[in-house]
Write a structure and sequence with these properties.
alpha+beta; binds zinc ion; elongated; about 10% strand; two-stranded antiparallel ribbon; about 90 residues; 2 strands
Length: about 90
């Protein structure tokens, strides 16, 4: 018997993989079932489902990746630009 790779549902709020057990919080939105790791995540989804379903377009993922790189490169701080150099102490 082959083990088929079953699709593990993902919590759209936090991105965690959720075991689609019967007691896991679920929500049906626009004909699709969503599983959540906790009721808090489900509530967050219920409040603004479009934020978690339609927001994950390629451009959002790209922006997230850029933000992630920024965080690694600059330690979460914004990169320095022209504001940081050449200023002499005047006080
Ligand atoms: Zn979650």
């Amino acid at each position: 018997m082959k083990t088929l790779t079953r699709q593990v549902p993902k919590d759209p709020v936090c991105g965690m993989r959720v075991s689609a057990a019967e007691d896991a919080p679920t929500l049906v939105y626009e004909g699709s079932s969503f599983w959540f790791c906790s009721k808090d995540c489900r509530e967050a989804f219920r409040k603004s489902p479009s934020r978690f379903t339609k927001g994950k377009s390629w451009i959002v993922r790209l922006l997230e990746r850029i933000a992630d790189v920024n965080e690694k490169e600059f330690g979460g701080k914004p990169p320095r630009c022209c504001g940081g150099h050449g200023n002499k102490r005047t006080s």
